Amino acid sequence: MKRLVPLVLVLALAACGGDKSAQTTIRLQPAPTDPGKAAVQAALEAAAAGKIDRLWGMLSAGSRQRLGPTLSRFRSGAGGELADRFGSLRNAKVIVSERITPEFGIVAVDGRRGGKRVVDAVPLRLEGTGWKLELGSPVKIRPIGPLPGKHEPVVAQIAAAVTGPGGSGTAVMYLDGHTENPKVAGTSSNSTLYASFEPPLDPGRHTVVVFASDGGDAGATAWDFTAGRSSG
Questions:
Q1: CATH 3.20.20.70 for domain 35-227
Q2: Domain ranges in the chain?
Q3: What is the pLDDT of residues 132-180, one digit of tens each?
Q4: What is the per-residue pLDDT across 74-125, written as a single tens digit (0 to 9) for each?
Q5: Which of 21, 62, 83, 190 yields a CA-CA distance of 20 to 30 A from 48?
């Protein structure tokens, strides 16, 4: 998750009286490892190795209940699907890693699956001092436009539909890894997020990542599209 971590300078003054030989030592404290990125990287590695039991331990308590609710049922059901989803990603590069609320964050990656470039996003929940994958949530996010993988001659707007139980929440949209300020239309249980651009987006491939929370639940999705090129 992104954090504003100040660079810490530790000054050790060895002065003693008026001794001109006093030395000043400057030590730089390195920034801590990004905890959200590390959690998703561990999940990708476990999936690639087919370690479904390890994936189970990386899920939030709510996710285990929804996708299990027992380890044996997880192994025979959602665990295999999750291992395929994460394990099939190759050369994954993190494009978004951010803490959205005190409880939730998101990590999105851009990689290759089956010879094609794809993006994937995972919401995370902070449990204790560790970030856990938050999956199977009732908060659902659906791309509206441009649709995943599509080629559009001109793109002046991106949009997604968000559905959930209904309640207060937070929504964030990213274009090419940068935070947008989307407008929201609809109700608390069924809304549309959209961001408009003038001039339209530059030609080429673009990625969209959307996070949304609704009460105590959160969801995320990601997709890519191409602007300014014909589908042929």
A1: no
A2: 35-227
A3: 999 999 999 999 999 999 999 999 999 999 999 887 889 999 999 999 9
A4: 999 999 999 999 999 999 999 999 999 999 999 999 999 998 999 999 999 9
A5: 62
